[in-house]
Amino acid sequence: MRFLGVTALIGLLAASPAASCATALILAIDVSNSIDDGEYRVQTDGLAAALDDPRIREELVRGEVALTVIQWSGAGRQEISIPWRRMETPGDVRAMARAAAGMDRAFVMSDTAVGDLIRFALARFADVPDCARRVIDVSGDGSDNAGTDPSAARRLAEARGVQINGLAIEGIGVAITNFYRSQVITRDGFVMTATGHATYAETLRQKILREVSAVMF
What we know:
Layout: H1 6-15, E1 23-30, H2 37-51, H3 54-62, E2 65-72, E3 78-86, H4 90-101, H5 114-124, E4 133-140, H6 150-159, E5 163-170, H7 175-184, E6 191-195, H8 200-213
Parallel strand pairs: 1-2, 1-4, 4-5, 5-6
Antiparallel strand pairs: 2-3
Helix pairs in contact: 2-4, 2-8, 3-8, 5-6
């Protein structure tokens, strides 16, 4: 039996292809002043449930998706709650779901700065340069009232080829949905509406499924 030298072995390992990434998806959760502690838990539990859905789990792995979770609120208040993780196996997705369920709230008593969030999120894609498609998934229950102009941040995202989608959590009417549609999502993006926090989990599940399934077409 012939044995490879150390130099040859290192060369073979270096030549092995790295895990591919079709889509980098940022999940951005609103924790501004309008979100109370119960509603925060609805969002985190809803995210965990969505990630634990068998169909989404399958699509995340098959679609070669990288995920990160950001909590956001007012100007300069954005936090990476879960750093980038590659969804290479069902176990990776389950671990991501557990991490989402266990997240502590990042901010309290703060305004809503969507423009600042978008700019912060755009910078995060530098950590996953091999991902072919880049998507920011913004959920929230209020319109912008602080920080930089969200429309300008959206134009920056479009210039960089980044898609922004929205999940609007409504009380009465569709004011937040209209705000997301007119000032937040990109031309290739979409908005889905949750009627209060009670329907958040199912709406988020459908939204993530729509986002990650798009990789396959």
